[in-house]
Amino acid sequence: MLNIIKGHLHRYTLIIIMILFTFLANDKHSMGDEGNIIPMKYQKAKLDNGLSIILVEHHELPVVAIELLVRAGSVHDPQEKQGLANIVAQLLREGTRSKDSLEISEEIDFIGGTLSADSEYDSTSVTATALVKHFKSILDLLSEVARFPTFKTKDIEFQREKTLTSILREKDNKRAIASRHFSEMLYGIHPYAHPSIGTLEGLKAITRKEIIQFHKNHYLPNNSILTVVGDIEPSNILAVIKKTFGDWKEGNVHKPTLPLMPKIVNYRIRLVDKPDLTQTEICIGHLGIRRNNPDYFSLMLLNYILGRGPTSRLYTEIRVERGLSYGVKSQFDARILRGPFYIRTYSKNETAIETLRLVLDELKKLKAGGITKEELDSAKSYYIGHFPLSLETPAQIASKIIEQEFYGLPEDYLEKYLENIKAVSREDVNRAIEGLIDPENLVIVLVSKAEDILKEAKTLGEVELKGL
Amino acid sequence: MLNIIKGHLHRYTLIIIMILFTFLANDKHSMGDEGNIIPMKYQKAKLDNGLSIILVEHHELPVVAIELLVRAGSVHDPQEKQGLANIVAQLLREGTRSKDSLEISEEIDFIGGTLSADSEYDSTSVTATALVKHFKSILDLLSEVARFPTFKTKDIEFQREKTLTSILREKDNKRAIASRHFSEMLYGIHPYAHPSIGTLEGLKAITRKEIIQFHKNHYLPNNSILTVVGDIEPSNILAVIKKTFGDWKEGNVHKPTLPLMPKIVNYRIRLVDKPDLTQTEICIGHLGIRRNNPDYFSLMLLNYILGRGPTSRLYTEIRVERGLSYGVKSQFDARILRGPFYIRTYSKNETAIETLRLVLDELKKLKAGGITKEELDSAKSYYIGHFPLSLETPAQIASKIIEQEFYGLPEDYLEKYLENIKAVSREDVNRAIEGLIDPENLVIVLVSKAEDILKEAKTLGEVELKGL
């Protein structure tokens, strides 16, 4: 089912690597009985300036989704300028060399499309959707905002104020407070310690010059991936892309020197005092994995069993059996570098430490006993059934395809997705648990009315008491 | 393009009205140049017990989306039991005659599907998605939760507590506070006055008996519509539906006697005091339209011009020109009965009344001068381009199709959607403005630190001062 065609299309002076395949299509042998996934034609190319291109045909509707991913995220924020990558992304749509914010909005609205930019820890994405017949217009606009923003002083001040307001508003949000303290403790001076949106101090310190420089350093074709998914004919599209992005000059990619992540020994417990709370917010965890970890599928299945959804161990124990909380969830945030593994829940102040102890017990039980065959089977069954539901729209497909490229996952990652899930054995999961899950060395954050729970919290270990 | 086939399929003892058509497909004449919308095969039927059925073929992925809409919403809540319809909906998944909450979750997870229930003002929807090969299983489950919930006392208490907590949490949310007061003033003793989720007093007063009775009164086949969209073959699906829902007993549909909506004369201004606020939340409006109002398209286009998105009059004036707010938005919530028309924005306390005055001025200008041809063209252009982007997934299609049926829109509503938009003239919009928009008689809600703005607010008229 997999044909690889290599060649040079001199007409476009492109180095072209074309990988056309129909994946997961009607192959009962490799698919077992879980139904057919749609065939998807997929093609890769690279412009001379280093821009990686992925094109996917998806013909159900006359629409197209575009994503330009730039390897520039909050991990590239200087220590004193937290929020830099985010404010750069937010400013892209505010004005370019030839269009102001209103003109950009008018052009998008005129074709009934969408265009937005968002930055995360490791990257920034500019995404757009439109009818196929407006492909050239929307691509032009996307190129314009990504490559030629002007960063006017008044737009910077507006965006800075807006972001500061968002951060201040988080003071009312228990969960956001817990996350912020958790990341800070887990990552220390590593930039994963601060949220992508930035910090009050960081945002206030950012200058226009630094914004311009950040854009110049990171928004480079050889630091970016462009994906187009939709009702397209790849060779036509490629010509348009070449015309639009061919003159984008490559440059030196700035890789930051990152500090080490701290080592957590025993429990590091922090109690954040918010005296108006009657419910305690709890966040517990340790370092997790890189996105390209070979145990990714094992840990995804493990996480399902431990704390994803209403059939998980944690939910059954804490919500169903004991009624201590309305919700409990575990999660791996897999990033370019090691993202966090964490469990979040909440309970009344009176039962907060009891709930926390139950979570710790579940982690210990998992570490000591591993998982059962039945648990693994039902986790697999969930993902096998659910996978196609996550690939319904061109924008969803674009995001999955770009994920594969960005994290350096195998070329056949999506093609073999279901096979990979099925191949995971109980031993694989238990080995992954053995290597990663560590119930003895944890960051524990409690956001609560301190006087309600401090004494009981101290039975677990030393408690660092903090204000908001 | 439209074939109507009528007949009786005695094999299923169904009264079948089959309407098969390929809509918006390749019809350049009626479509102009805005691209082809996918062809969609669409079929209607009705079971003997009165259940309306709509089936849509959508073959891109091997998935299926199901929506069962029951005409039972918070508009059916008794005055003293606000939140009844919602708690009934929330309890459906908590346990049935043969399955407890955990078993239901396990079954859904086992097939990797989704199943949820949500209630709004006029209706409750139970929605599900799954792979097509699990259609029978997910339909069985959907039928089980919709028809045979047991409403155990412990589940009721859990759900009641959870909902009360959500309502209490709204106290931190300025926008939710403004909405609540706005609806209360606009609708008086009409049930649209309270949010679907209910009120603290209402929720506390609800008994198990009332929950059971509400379900019995409203969850009836002759009060419901079932829509299935996906990679299906209608006649097979119809047989399965008949087997699953054929024994659902019809009953008398309980239509509530609803009080009249109050008449608002002049400005009715309410200032809600929240002393910690530095930003004032503003909500202004009056009664809007029923969903089946023949001027729906005119008003949709008008709303775009007035306050939808970054090119609208309000946004340009308040955000772009004056920098008084980060956001401003106008909206029509079109319901079975007249929903609200409202404008929402916020500004620093010092500039709140100035911002409010600008909004009022824009409404007056609109009423006096109407819209321009250029504004209308760009609004049309937006919706023409955007429509296909709102029909990407089976679940989106199901929701549009059920909307058409539920609100009694014309049979060719979706088919003629783009044509209808294009047919709207400047005169149509201006006539709709003349008939509906009323800048002299408005509900105005301000949520703010009262002492900061009270004096200035009084320059607009009498101000009712309220606590949270």
Automatic annotation (TrEMBL), chains A, B:
Domain Peptidase M16 C-terminal: 206-381
UniProt feature coiled coil, ranges: none
Segments forming domain Peptidase M16 N-terminal: 55-198
SUPFAM superfamilies per the UniProt record, alphabetical: LuxS/MPP-like metallohydrolase
GO MF term set: metal ion binding
Transmembrane segments annotated in the record for this chain: none
Protein name: Peptidase M16 C-terminal domain-containing protein
Organism: marine sediment metagenome
Taxonomic lineage of the native organism: unclassified sequences, metagenomes, ecological metagenomes
